[in-house]
Amino acid sequence: MKMAAVTLQRSVVSQTGKHTASVIFLHGSGDTGPGLLRWVCDVLGQNLAFENIRMIYPTAPARPYTPMRGAQSHVWFDRHKISQDCPEHLESIDSMCNRLSAIVQDEIQAGIPKHRMIIGGFSMGGAMALNLVYRYHQDVAGVFALSSFLNTDSVVYQAVESVAQRPLPELFQCHGTADELVFHSWGKETNSLLKKAGLNTQFHSIPDLNHQLCQQELELLRSWILKKLPL
Question: Which of 16, 70, 123, 144 fits a 20 to 30 Å CA distance from 215?
């Protein structure tokens, strides 16, 4: 994949000890890397910090966003609408996969092999991570998607099915049962279809949670990250 010349802005929480692994955490639509970092800190009362793992929070560049009638927004890709039942905007998804791959390459140059990386995100960031990992970086340690979904005809399902004979990174998902923007059923169906396509998956339903982060899921995520990226 050709690497983009323009570097995405990013916020970084450095590890407290030797850097031996990295996590790339992608924000939801309309947010930024610093905004997601502040949100995580507000929910946990501290950074999502680790002894050996660098946390990276990139910011999507502003672009016209169709669900906002073409207004500029920090989004990873465009959508025709927020729905399972519409075509994916593949041109913008593929362009951003290209740009985010430059961050993966930066970590490789810093001495971190891909099997010591995790990529994930919240809402749109989770969908972006699913595309980035299962279509282009199938040798990372894992992928997570919080309050996220894929379109019913997503090319990600095809990508997973095409390599079903070899292990792919495990998927970790959490989703609030009271989500009024990205319905819990959308996240559950995404997980079920990816599992059917051959993925090893986890899905955690968070009772009464709307479209937001909570301490319970971040603690579950922390434990899963430590399991995938041990010291």
Answer: 16
Q: Are residues 119 and 128 in contact, defined by beta-carbon separation less than 8 angstroms?
A: no
Q: Which of 78, 154, 179, 184 is catalytic?
A: 179
Catalytic residue at 179? Answer: yes
Burial class (CB in 10 A: 0-12, 13-18, 19+), 231: exposed
Which of these is catalytic: 29, 92, 123, 147? 123
- pLDDT tens per residue across span 17-50: 999 999 999 999 999 999 999 999 999 999 999 9
CATH number, domain containing residue 116: 3.40.50.1820
Range of the domain at 116: 10-228
Residue of 19, 89, 204, 211 marked active site? 211
Active-site residue flag, 123: yes
Please answer whether residues 173 and 204 qualify as being in contact, where contact means their C-beta atoms are separated by less than 8 angstroms: yes
- Per the DSSP assignment, residues forming a β-bridge with 53 are 21
